[in-house]
Amino acid sequence: MRKTIAERLSKSKREIPHFYLRKKVHIDKLLLARTFLNNKLESKKIKISINDFIIKAIAHALYNNPKCNVTWGEDRIIKSSSTDVALAVAIEDGLVTPVIKNIKNKTLSDLSTESKLMIERAKNRRLKPEEMFGGTITISNLGMMGIDNFDAIINPPHGSILAVGKTEEVVAFDDNENIVKKTIVHLNLSLDHRMIDGAIGAKFLNEIASFL
């Protein structure tokens, strides 16, 4: 596994012209919505995470920005009509990336249930080969480990990878210039410049932020 990771990511970093976009996103309304939804879903033992919201936002942004819903096909750019996102899951001696398919058409509760099942299967080494195939973007979340922000290496042949840092409370000004407390999350988007240009990537990241 380490050999495969070394080969794939060395090749990615060496051959893919990475560029990076970074954005701080206010998520106070998201946190309120999450609390409301989880209270409603408590009887079903479903608990939606911030990561589930981010995955859902990525899927809708992919749908609205088809030029970012792409993979590299060596001599051509391959466009996808589906909204599939890979999850970077750390296991004991490496990393695997199961893919959640057709996210745009799933509810947050469905997504929460499926993502938790995928992560559990990944950690127990019970993923099927087809469950690790596909997608055009990976999400890697180290926020739960206290990391402020980071730049992730693209998982080929994907066109991008979103690195998610921790949530933190900051001091900000509201519309009336009053000092208020806000909650933000750091998003760092790594993109393949062979397929996606800066302005297109910026529109994509801004749309993810807007959904959140």
Describe the structure.
The chain is α+β, with helices and mostly antiparallel strands. It is about 35% helix and about 30% strand. The protein contains 5 helices and 10 strands; from the N terminus they run αβααββββββαβββα. The protein has helices spanning about 1-15, 30-40, 50-65, 110-125, 200-210, and strands spanning about 20-25, 70, 75-80, 85, 90, 95, 100, 135-140, 160-175, 180-190. The strands form 3 sheets. Strands 1-10-9-8-4-7 form a 6-stranded mixed beta sheet, with helices on one face. A two-stranded antiparallel ribbon has the order 2-3. The longest helix is centred in the middle third of the chain and has 16 residues, at about 110-125. It starts with a helix and ends with a helix.
Mean pLDDT: 95
**Total strand segments:** 10
Instruction: Count up the helices.
Output: 5
- SSE series: HEHHEEEEEEHEEEH
Major sheet: 6 strands, mixed
Strand fraction = 25-35%
* Overall shape: globular
| Rg (C-alpha, Å) | 17 Å
Low-pLDDT segments: none
Distance between the termini: 35 Å
Instruction: State the helicity in percent bands.
Output: 25-40%
* Strand order across the largest sheet: 1-10-9-8-4-7
Structural class: alpha+beta
